Amino acid sequence: MGASQGIGGPTLAKSNQPVSQQSEPSLLAIMKKMTQIMANIQEASFSEASRPQAFKTPPMKAPECFDGPQPFKGRRFIKSCQLIFHNDPENFSQEGKKVLCVNSFLIGRAAKWIEPYLSNLTNQDPSYLLNSWQLFES
Fold it and tell me: Where is this region: Disordered (predicted)?
């Protein structure tokens, strides 16, 4: 029942066919499958490469830091922040994110004014100053 030596080379006692002929159909099937897989990979790569890139919002200049004593600078500061929020609505979809972003640009008296509110960042009350852009900007 083991392999024996035939006229054309090694044969199996079971089938009298050379080993190379017995494995040929499965090797052919494997080669066809590999060719199909390679074609699928190339097609997927081509379709991703030919797909247009999504438009990305260009970055905007950060507002100048605000220190608080001059009201006209405060209005300009708020408008600059609103432009950033409008330009990137995905990142600023929540009111609290807007307020926290603005707080990162406060310095001097303005930073001292907001400091007590920052100690309670976990407050989820919608009427809390840090959770409402409308309250904050007014």
Answer: 1-25
Per the CB < 8 A criterion, the answer to whether 10 and 18 are in contact is yes
pTM of the shown model: 0.54
Amino acid at 101: C
Give 66-117 pLDDT, tens digit per residue. 998 887 888 899 999 999 999 888 888 888 889 888 989 999 999 998 888 8
Taking the C-alpha atoms of residue 83 and residue 85, their distance in angstroms, rounded to an integer, is 5
* CB-CB neighbours of 11 under 10 Å: 18
Residue 130: is it exposed, middle or buried by C-beta count within 10 angstroms (0-12/13-18/19+)? buried
- Nearest Cα residue to 111 out of 85, 77, 82: 77
Domain spans of the chain? 3-50, 71-137
Arithmetic mean of pLDDT, 124-136:
79
